[in-house]
């Protein structure tokens, strides 16, 4: 990160510090402090997308905004994942030097946020209903990740790398080079919808191979079935690639 900050004219660093999309990874405290140090050293604003803060299980897992210099951090939150996607309402804490430009830009897009929607959300947040909803939601996603983790431990053993966070929406399975899209396409025909993580990388940056799993709207049996079929497809495709290479070598000989 320091090499990027040092080499380029970087103004903003966008990051999801916890339960990142698409891999589900979270920064630890040491990593957060290093990001804050580098941003301060090179004069970079941090845009912190803390979209799943309400699902956090650790009481002391502070946001970058809570840990750092407030005038260098743009903190944004969403209620789409933890409350209602159709609500289309989020929040942002903007440093004073950027508020004027931010307001002008937002008004050029939608003029203003509907007052009725904001009022309904305010009532819900101030009541005990939202707290109760968050408790249920945290329990739900923790259970789904526990099921997914157990399935991966039993199915993959040590030959496939994966990351299943303690909670959240997304998890990650690393796949061998050049077969990710084939896995996604094959399993879609069996009503298992996966995503390659390639689309999450910016042009010009190194691209990793892997599959994003989403546990939303999944029954426990669906997760078990998906993991089993992912392993089968990986093994089939690897075997096919090996046979293809061996056949090519035989022709050369």
Automatic annotation (TrEMBL):
Q: Which GO terms describe its biological process?
A: alpha-amino acid metabolic process
- Tell me where in this chain the Aminotransferase class I/classII large domain is found: 20-228
Q: What are the alphabetically sorted keywords of the record?
A: Aminotransferase, Pyridoxal phosphate, Transferase
Cofactor(s) listed? pyridoxal 5'-phosphate
One Pfam annotation reads Aminotran_1_2
User: Source organism's superkingdom?
Assistant: Bacteria
Query: Key word Cytoplasm present in the record?
Result: no
A molecular function (GO) held by this record is:
pyridoxal phosphate binding
Name the PANTHER family for this protein. AMINOTRANSFERASE (PTHR42790), GNTR-FAMILY TRANSCRIPTIONAL REGULATOR (PTHR42790:SF6)
Identify this protein by name: Aminotransferase class I/II-fold pyridoxal phosphate-dependent enzyme
Organism (species):
Anaerocolumna sedimenticola
């Amino acid at each position: 990160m320091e090499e990027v900050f040092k080499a380029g004219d970087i103004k903003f660093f966008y990051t999801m510090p916890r339960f990142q999309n698409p891999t589900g990874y979270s920064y630890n405290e040491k990593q957060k402090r290093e990001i804050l140090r580098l941003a301060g050293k090179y004069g970079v604003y941090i845009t912190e997308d803390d979209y799943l803060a309400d699902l956090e299980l650790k009481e002391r897992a502070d946001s970058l905004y809570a840990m750092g210099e407030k005038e260098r951090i743009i903190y944004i939150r969403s209620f789409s994942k933890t409350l209602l996607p159709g609500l289309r309402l989020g929040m942002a804490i903007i440093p004073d030097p950027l508020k004027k430009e931010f307001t002008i830009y937002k008004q050029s897009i939608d003029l203003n946020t509907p007052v009725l929607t904001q009022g309904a959300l305010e009532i819900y947040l101030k009541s005990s209903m939202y707290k109760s909803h968050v408790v249920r939601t945290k329990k739900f996603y923790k259970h789904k990740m526990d099921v997914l983790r157990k399935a991966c431990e039993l199915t993959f053993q040590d030959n496939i790398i994966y990351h299943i966070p303690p909670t959240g929406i997304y998890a990650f399975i690393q796949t061998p080079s050049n077969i990710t899209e084939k896995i996604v396409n094959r399993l879609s025909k069996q009503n298992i919808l996966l995503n390659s993580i390639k689309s999450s990388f910016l042009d010009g940056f190194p691209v990793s191979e892997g599959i994003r799993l989403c546990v939303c709207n999944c029954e426990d049996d669906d997760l078990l079935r998906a993991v089993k079929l992912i392993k089968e497809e990986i093994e089939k495709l690897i075997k096919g690639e090996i046979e293809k290479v061996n056949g090519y070598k035989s022709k050369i000989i």
